[in-house]
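Course exercise 7: structure representation. Students receive a sequence record and must write out the corresponding structure in token form. The form below is the worked example handed out in class, using Iron-only hydrogenase system regulator (87 residues). Read each field label carefully; the graders check that inputs and outputs are placed in the correct fields and that the protein name is recorded exactly as given.

STUDENT ID: A-19
EXERCISE PROTEIN: Iron-only hydrogenase system regulator
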Amino acid sequence: MISSTIRIFGILIRDKEKEDGCIQKILARYVNSIKTRLGIYDVEDRQNYPYGLIFIQVVGNEEDMNRFEKEIYMIEGVEIQHMFFQS
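STUDENT ANSWER:
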């Protein structure tokens, strides 16, 4: 049986103005590594709800995933967490 790792990142956007589209630019650079993307936002009250949450399932080598996580981590107003599962 081949062992593989499932990597999931949770990205919390705390301040959309500070983030200013940086996450989208990073996601575009890693588009070939993104297997699943789910965004959760409160679209009814966007003005008073500056938060957003994105879940990303990624594939690829560990070095690329570490670089991805570091790039997201450097954005002001954003928090990133990760989960790794071995199968």
